[in-house]
Design brief:
Layout lengths: L1 E7 L5 H11 L7 E5 L6 H10 L2 E5 L1 H4 L9 H7 L4 H10 L4 E8 L5 E7 L4
Parallel strand pairs: 1-2, 2-3
Antiparallel strand pairs: 1-5, 4-5
Helix pairs in contact: 1-2
Length: about 120
């Protein structure tokens, strides 16, 4: 199962999410997009999922906490307990044996991040 994890600021645009995802490797083969639960209802995220014809998977913040990520943001670590929301969400949803295919990338406007993971989906 291939999952794109997305982290973003509250006023993110669809264009910023697309740009971050494209920088991470694009949407080919994605089964879902994932983010922290409190952002799963964001209009831009739902629009991206609809455009890609994939589901939005929400991950509780306490599940993200402690997931080891290859990139580290001190701000995100202090807020969520993990180095990257995008990487942690992708890994959490991709399931057992998940591994990052693409580490966190950032949109040029710094409003969105994306990472892609693959796993068995369970």
């Amino acid at each position: 199962m291939k999952v794109a994890g997305l982290g973003f600021k509250q006023d993110v645009t669809l264009a910023s999410l697309r740009e971050a995802l494209d920088a991470a490797g694009g949407s080919d083969g994605l089964a879902a997009v994932a983010t922290v639960s409190d952002k799963a209802e964001a209009a831009a995220l739902k629009a991206l999922a609809c455009e890609l014809n994939v589901s939005v998977r929400s991950v509780p913040a306490d599940v993200l906490a402690g997931i080891v990520t290859s990139t580290q943001s001190e701000f995100i670590k202090a807020k969520f307990g993990t180095g990257s929301v995008a990487e942690a969400a992708a890994l959490a949803v991709a399931g057992r044996g998940a591994r990052l295919v693409s580490a966190r990338t950032v949109s040029q406007d710094r409003m969105a991040t994306a990472a892609i993971a693959e796993g068995d989906g369970e």
